[in-house]
Each structure stands twice: as C-alpha cells, then as structure tokens.
Amino acid sequence: MALIVQKFGGTSVGSPERIRNVANRVLREKARGNQVVVVVSAMSGETDRLLKLAREMHRQPPERELDMLISTGEQVTVALLAMGLEALGHPARSYTGAQVAIQTDSVFTKARITNIDEHRIRADLDAGRVVVVAGFQGVDSEGNITTLGRGGSDTTAVAIAAALQADECHIYTDVDGVYTTDPRVEPRARRLDRITFEEMLEMASLGAKVLQTRSVEFAGKYNIPVRVLSSFEEGPGTLVTCEEVNMEEAKVSGIAFNRNEAKITMIGVPDCPGIAYAILGPVSKASINVDMIIQNVSEQGKTDFTFTLDKSDFDKAMEIVKRTGTELGAEKVEGDCRVGKLSIVGVGMRSHAGIASTMFETLARENINIQMISTSEIKISVVVDEKYLELAVRALHEAFGLHQGNN
Amino acid sequence: MALIVQKFGGTSVGSPERIRNVANRVLREKARGNQVVVVVSAMSGETDRLLKLAREMHRQPPERELDMLISTGEQVTVALLAMGLEALGHPARSYTGAQVAIQTDSVFTKARITNIDEHRIRADLDAGRVVVVAGFQGVDSEGNITTLGRGGSDTTAVAIAAALQADECHIYTDVDGVYTTDPRVEPRARRLDRITFEEMLEMASLGAKVLQTRSVEFAGKYNIPVRVLSSFEEGPGTLVTCEEVNMEEAKVSGIAFNRNEAKITMIGVPDCPGIAYAILGPVSKASINVDMIIQNVSEQGKTDFTFTLDKSDFDKAMEIVKRTGTELGAEKVEGDCRVGKLSIVGVGMRSHAGIASTMFETLARENINIQMISTSEIKISVVVDEKYLELAVRALHEAFGLHQGNN
C-alpha cells in the first residue's frame, strides 16, 4: 500500500461536474489499494470574484483581510469534493489549512510553510478515509489565516507529501507531462518520462510553467518524487525525481525559452568595486526584476555591463539606467527589446564535455548570432534576436536528438 | 466608555455598498467613544448559492461538510467589512468563529455554543481596533467547523456580548423595533421602547419573528440588554431587558398571533394514565411539532384531548390520530384547519387581576367564539376561527390601550 498525495488545480475543479470527475479519479487511486490525500485549489474564477469584491471595499485591501477572504475559495472546494466522494460511497473528510496545522510565517499573501502536523491526516487515513486538504493556505503562529501566493497549492501538496513521507506526489495539470520543449514550436517535442528536480527548476523558471518553482525546491529538498499528470487524459506523465545513475545517459533533457526578454547594456563604465550595485540598485528599487546579468573582463579600467529583464519593464528601466549612466560617466547605454532567451538544460552536462560546442556550432550553422551567453552547472543560456528564437529551438532539438527518446 | 456588540444580518451586508453603510454605522458607534465588536451574517443569497452547489454534489450532503462549506459565507463578509472599515481609516480585524474560540458541541448544522474565549477580542479592543466576528459558526472540541442553525448569528452576538460582559447587544434588522402587534393588521400598532426577555420570548415564539428565540434565552440567562434596531433608519429601537420596577405599569405589552394553526381533538377517550403519550407519541415520531395541548377535567372516566399544530402537518396528523383513536376506543376524532391563535403577552399580568376577563369580555362583545384557552404566567392564548383573527387583534389592541403608549 502506497501513500499518494494528489493535487488538482482550479480548472480541474471548476464546476460540480468537474469536481465529480476528480472524485472518480481519487477513487481510482484508492482502488489500487493506496491511501490518498487530495489537495485542491479554488474553483476557477472564484479567486477573481473575491478579489473584485475586495477591490470594491478598499483600493489596497489589507493583506491579512485579503487572505481571510480568498482562503474561502479553497474551503468551498474541499467541502464539495468531500461531498462528491461521499456521494460515491467513500468516506472522506475535508480540512482547511489551519485545521491540519499547515503552519506558516506571517507574511500575508505570500507566506512560507514552516511546519505541518501530520497526525490528524494520518488518523483519517488509518481509518480508511480520503483526506481532502485546502491548498494555498495556512495559519501563522497567532492563528491568522495566511495564503502562500501564486501556485501555492502545488507547494501545499508537496509539503504534505513531505510531512507524511508519501510515496509520490501527483500534480494534475492541463498538460500530460513535461516536454523536451514547447510542442507549439517544435511539433516533435517529446514528453519526458523523468526529469531531475534541478532540471525541472531550470525548465520551470525559464518559462515551462508546469510546476510552481517553490514546490519543486521543496520536493527536491525533502526528496519527494513528483509526478506531473493530465487532469483530462490517462497517462504516466513525467516523474520529477532526484538524479539517478541511469539518467547520466541523457546529456540534454530539454530546451526552455522565453520570448519576453529585453536587454540593456551600459558601455564603457569605470570598472571599480560597487559598480554592479550602482547600476542595479536603482532598477531593483523600482521593483523591476532582472534575469541574466553579464559582465565581461574589463579593458583599460572600463567594462561593459549587460542585464536582461521582462519586455514590459524595458522603457521604465532604460530611463533609470540612462540616468545612472550619466552619473557614473558611462560612454553610453544601449537597449534592445527584440531579443529572446533560450536554454538547454540537463544534468548530463556535468559529466559530458562538448555540449556547449555542439550548441554553438548548431546556431552558427543556422547563421544565428549569439548576443549573450551565460552558463550554470546544468544549463547553458543564450540570448539571440527574437526572430531567430524558434528556429534556434528546432535546430537544437534536432541536434541533441531530443525527439528520439534517449531519456 | 461602553462596550457594544452589533449584529448585522444578510440583507444589511448584501452588497459592497451595503457593507460600506454598515462600516459607517459601526464608526458612528465608535465616534460616541464606545468599543465595538461587530457580528455579521453571510451576504444575502450566498448561503443559498452554496447550498445549491452542495446539492449538486450530494443528495443529502454530510452535515460536517455542509458546515465546512456554508461557514465560508460569513468568512467572506467579515473580511470585506474589515476592509471597509480600514478604507474609512479605522483599524479593524476580522475573525472566524474558530479563531475567537467560539466552542460548540459537535451537532453539525445546529450546534450549541459551550464557551467563548474572549481574550483575543479583548486584546484587539484594547488596541483600539474594531473586531469583526463571523456569526453563525463555531468550532467543536476536535477543531471541526460547526454552524449554529437558523438565526445563529443573533446567538453569536449575544454569546459574545455575554462573554465580554458588554453593555448592550444591538441587533440590526429590517424593522425598527418590536411592536405591540403586527402593523399590517393594526395600523395603530406602536413600537415598544422596552420589553422584558420573557415577553420577547413569548412574542417571538408566537410569530413576531424579530429575534431568534435561542438568542433571547441566552440574553435573558446572562442578563445582556439587547436592542432591536433598523439597519436602514436611525432610531432608538426596542430594548429587550430584564424586568424592572417601572415596567409594572404595563399590563399587556403586545399581541402576538399565528394564522398557520390547525387543531385536532380526540373526543371521549378513556381518562387513564399515559393517555397523553399514547396520543402524542405517534405524532411526535412522525416529526410533527405540536403547539398548544389542552386536556380538560374528565367526566365519567372519559376526557377530550385537543392539540394545535402547523396547518401544513394537518392531514398527516389527522391520519395518525384517527388510527390512534380507534386503538384507544375514542368516540371520535375531529379536526379543523381554519383556526388561528392569538396571545396577549405582558409581565404586568402577574400582578394585575382582570386581564383575562377584559380579554374575554372584548372578544364576546365582538361575537367571537373562543375555541380553546391556554395560559402561562405572562400570556393568555386563545384559539378562534381564523376569519375572526384580525378583528380580535384590533379589538384587543384597543381594549388594552396599546396604541396609547403606556409602555
């Protein structure tokens, strides 16, 4: 008998009919002889409805009260799902985050889980019940209701799986797994049977938005195997797990890309301590998130400093950086919002030489100029003209044999 | 500085606009220098919306899950009201029933309050905050969410007022107080400035549905003055309080009546021990509530036994009682569903003779036949042909000078 934690998002529980489908899916897992804990989000549309009410009361609603309000969304879903399971003849019990003691800090609207008391859930499981827990929410040390921020239900599921030492955590989504790249760009993109936590992190934070980044970090930290599955069709999905020996075969697991990048370069700025902070400090103060940061070796005491950011922040950031450039005595500030970023990701890179050169050779053959390069242990990212982005993805998918299923 | 508990029902908080009105009213009470705790119900329509969802999941939803579901209604309102108060520049904090430890038994959907821990509320009040508490809900000893059943928010308000030893509990409704009788029947009916708990209980349970009976019992038990006020207009309302010396003046405070009565009589039944149970046992087993019960002295070992009940249960009850009549050897069973009940209520009756004779004389003068009479310490009830009910109300209102304001 295995213990499985299942998580269903807002679309999967968007109507009584869909909640009934979820109930059936839960009971199929039970029928395999497993114990099941289900984590659910608010019905799709419900959180927006509540936020609209909040904005009618207050232009900037107090965050404690916002959490009090929107946490009702998941509470409705857990009760309805428990009813649905009971209607199918199976004992079930629903819980809010507070009731199963999902302890968090007090950072309302984006709290972090600090502890979960698994005793109550365990007792219900031992009594043969399905346990239905509200995702996205917790309770702070003073008993205030908190919410975990965007994608928080994934994190709830993984955290409960960790607390219960579950065998697997199943995240049901609208895709049937993690792909080597976006199938809309490369039709031969292939579903991966498995991927490591680290690769998943690189894939997810780079735009393959299947799993919430924090939930993957959590899963990696506590080594909880996470399976990404489709809510709508049957299939094995993709297992996200820790690195295993037989995974060494795969040099590159997937290609992530992001069209929404822009880059800004400060040219000929004096290369002295504190220069990076002098440039990025004002940007960060304006609440603009920076992605890649590159500074090459300096010549004659001067250096060029480049960073990328979201296209939507480009104009605002250019203005700030130009002002900083003048203050710092930079030669000039240049920007380009017609770029895209592409990354090849794979734990195999660690032990396989030549991955980078294959990448660069492939891009050269297609006549695609590489504007920036940045690497980490398991990924190589390049920035190219956005018009070549999709061509680059397809060429690299081919070059690394990703559609052939070496994974 | 007084401590006031205010309670607003579903209609008063039915939209963001109305919740803003409530916020303004709360702050007017604060502006008088008082501390305020506000208890609110779910927005009107919300509970029905949730019950509809529940019925789509389960024909007879499990009651624990039903409470989990519908308790979200009040949780939404408290958060929105706290936002509304903050938007007006006043610190406020919302709480669920569980958070302020409104302990109840575990009888889901109709739980009873066993204890309230006032410390958290007190701390917020001392910090100058308005405290907004979800009505209608509590938490049992195992941490399950419970609801208090019909009119439960009134009970929450009174229970909190008792726990905090509040100076007054204000119940805002769609009427501006308690009247001597229904103004739709007697246009000269007058708002009472004050009424005792006992009178209020008799008035309420007899059909003047302003306050929930349980909340009045609670208020009487802990001696919490309750003021019935209008949500929509200013005014002093009616103060429900314990008996005071100056109330002795009022012989009769009001006239309650109920059109929905029917009566059933078993004639010539052997007068022996256990006969009342033999007749009413089967009725009660069929979940039929009985109102008045009258048995007169017996003649020659035989007696007549009469009871009244709701018109809607008449046919079902007649069938049962006829069967019982045959078993018991009664002469016959008669029924009439065209009757009405009328009661004059007043603590003054205790010390004033002649109230009953004035009542009977008045009805005789109007040629209204009295079919049944039943009395308690502070009320006299009669059953008459339903077509004379309104005439009787008006005649008695006049006879006892109720429109003249001796109260």
In CATH, the architecture of the largest domain in chain A is 3-Layer(aba) Sandwich
Strand order of the largest sheet of chain A: 3-6-2-1-9-11-12-10
% residues in beta strands of chain A: 25-35%
- Find the count of extended strands of chain A (DSSP E, 2+ residues): 18
Biggest sheet layout of chain A: 8 strands, mixed
Question: Helical amount among residues of chain A, as a percent range?
Answer: 25-40%
Oligomeric state of the chains present here: homodimer
Number of helices of chain A: 11
CATH class of the largest domain in chain A: Alpha Beta
Most extensive chain-chain interface:
A-B, 38 and 38 residues
Shape of chain A: globular
- The number of distinct structural domains of chain A comes to 2
Report the mean per-residue pLDDT of chain A as an integer: 91
Can you put this structure into words, describing what you see?
The structure is a homodimer of 407-residue chains. Chain A has 11 helices and 18 strands. Chain A folds into 2 domains: 171 residues, 3-Layer(aba) Sandwich (Carbamate kinase), CATH 3.40.1160; 150 residues, VC0802-like (2-Layer Sandwich). The first copy, chain A, has an 8-stranded mixed β-sheet with strand order 3-6-2-1-9-11-12-10, sandwiched between helices. The longest helix of chain A has 25 residues. In chain A, helix 5 runs parallel beside helix 7 and helix 10 crosses helix 11. The model of chain A has no long low-confidence stretch (mean pLDDT 91). Chain A is globular and about 75 Å long. Helix content of chain A is 35%, strand content 28%. In chain A, strand 14 and strand 15 form a beta hairpin. Chain A has 407 residues and is of the alpha/beta class.
